[in-house]
Amino acid sequence: MEKTLKQNEPLVKHIYTADPSAHVFDGKIYIYPSHDIDHDGPTNDNGDQYAMEDYHVLSLDGFDSPCVDHGEVLHLKDIPWAKQQLWAPDAAFKNNTYYLFFPARDHDGIFRLGVATSPNPAGPFTTQENYIPGSFSIDPAVLVDDDNRAFIYFGGLWGGQLEKWQTGSFIPDAEGPAESEPALGPRIAELSEDMLTFKEDPKEISIVDENGQPILAGDEERRFFEGPWVHKYNGYYYLSYSTGTTHCIVYAMSKNPEGPYVYKGKILTPVLGWTTHHSIVQFEDKWYLFYHDSSLSGGVNHKRSVKFTELKYNEDGTIQTIDPYK
Ligand code: FUB
């Protein structure tokens, strides 16, 4: 357990953690990260090196308290439908229950989204037998809106397989759109009241520029790659995500949870390591960005550590860009 918390330092150092989804539950901050495996195996663009097998939950009473690791809360061996790769999870609270949403490859090697439940935000979580029907790709993020409707956002390119679902079915050899075509957007679906199924077929979210034109697939500085996260501030929905190949966290805004979202700018400049993945949460009267980098492992892409830093808005609701190394 780390005794003191510092901005832009690993929250914990005894395990590698990544893809932090932070929430305030019962007045405490709970972080739902991936648990990176400390291996030295081969790596590739498909992300096979991200071979995670379980989840831990971290929590903070506040930023002047130690970070508590609540230990393993769900393991691959207890998820009947999943074969490998427990990637970036998220959690939500509704119906007096905590829900852990997570991606994994099924026994056919196709990424699906699963859900597990607990009466306690720190778990342990009990999984549903099967993945969410109609789910695919990776990186679920759940927003329970002010009217108590819950939306799940998800999707990721390359190893996240989103390109393969453009027709609505899984096409193993499908490629992404041409550079001059609109980029693929993350998907959204409203969740059923019990949070265990989609209420509707997932829809693609449109991300447009300031003139209302779709962000194109070749616009790698701005197009969606993976890691969607949605939070609300002053009546706007903020969709933030990783640009993957250009390694930034960027954001777009909308008045509607389903979009279209208008691209606004950069939240986080590139971190050490290939991936970048984040969440944004309000705690008391301040806002925080949780993110990861590979500094603790000396730059090994699949050995990452969760960190946090304060996030600030401008008067007009835009977000100030963060360089975590300055
Ligand atoms: O941690 C595995 C994958 O790497 C996540 O699902 C992506 O968002 C990227 O961080």
From TrEMBL:
Alphabetical list of Gene3D superfamilies matching this protein: Glycosyl hydrolase domain, family 43 (2.115.10.20)
The UniProt record lists the keyword Hydrolase: yes
Gene Ontology biological process terms from the UniProt entry: xylan catabolic process
Residues annotated as the enzyme's active site: 40, 226
Pfam families per UniProt: Glyco_hydro_43
Keyword Cell wall biogenesis/degradation: no
Site residues by UniProt (Important for catalytic activity, responsible for pKa modulation of the active site Glu and correct orientation of both the proton donor and substrate): 139
Keywords of this entry: Carbohydrate metabolism, Glycosidase, Hydrolase, Polysaccharide degradation, Xylan degradation
GO MF, any single term: hydrolase activity, hydrolyzing O-glycosyl compounds
Stored CDD domains: GH43_CoXyl43_like (cd18619)
Signal peptide: none
Family affiliation: Belongs to the glycosyl hydrolase 43 family.
Protein name: Glycosyl hydrolase family 43
